[in-house]
Amino acid sequence: MAIDAKLLNRILNVLIILILVLVGFFAYSALVDRPARLREFAQSEISRDVPDMRTAAQSEKESLHIVVRILNGCGVSGVAYKLREYLLTQGFDVVETTNAEHFNYDKTIIYLHRNDFQVAKQVSDKLRMPNNPFLDNRTPDYPCDVTIVIGKDYQTLPPFSNE
Questions:
Q1: What is the pLDDT of residues 61-82, one digit of tens each?
Q2: How far apart are CA 121 and CA 140, in angstroms?
Q3: pTM across the whole model
Q4: pLDDT tens readout for residues 8-51
């Protein structure tokens, strides 16, 4: 028994109309109820008990707009993170802390990626080390101003010294 083409056409038309009615109903309910939900959201208050998620460095010091990358070149766990926290409190923007290619750096080194030696002076002053950076301008669009490779002399740096 074959279904008549007219009957099949009517069934499909009824299904299409039902789908359109359902879509229209959902669209209408979303639009009509939306202003009430927005008002409710806008009037809700944020609890004052929410902890301040900024680090102490972000809340205490204005940025010097000097972007720093820190590499652990001595192999001691946690030194890059501790130096990062210190530099943040001094107003530097630290974009990365990671391990160096090896852990055989005897001295801490500052690599300057811009021809602005004033930047290197500010970093070396905060780290209480001589201002003799290595100029590394091979890549002019390098994503940071300075790279600090922490050497085995890290105990002389401010966050590690007892001064």
A1: 677 889 999 999 999 999 999 9
A2: 20
A3: 0.61
A4: 899 999 999 999 999 998 888 777 666 555 555 555 555 555 55
Say which amino acid occupies 142. Y
Between strands 109-112 and 146-150, the pairing is antiparallel
**Pair of tokens at residue 139:** 């890549």
Q: What is the SS3 string spanning the chain?
A: CCCCHHHHHHHHHHHHHHHHHHHHHHHHHHHHHHHHHHHHHHHCCCCCCCCCCCCHHHHHCCCCCCEEEEEECCCCCCHHHHHHHHHHHCCCEEEEEEECCCCCCCCCEEEECCCCHHHHHHHHHHCCCCCCCEECCCCCCCCCCEEEEECCCHHHCCCCCCC
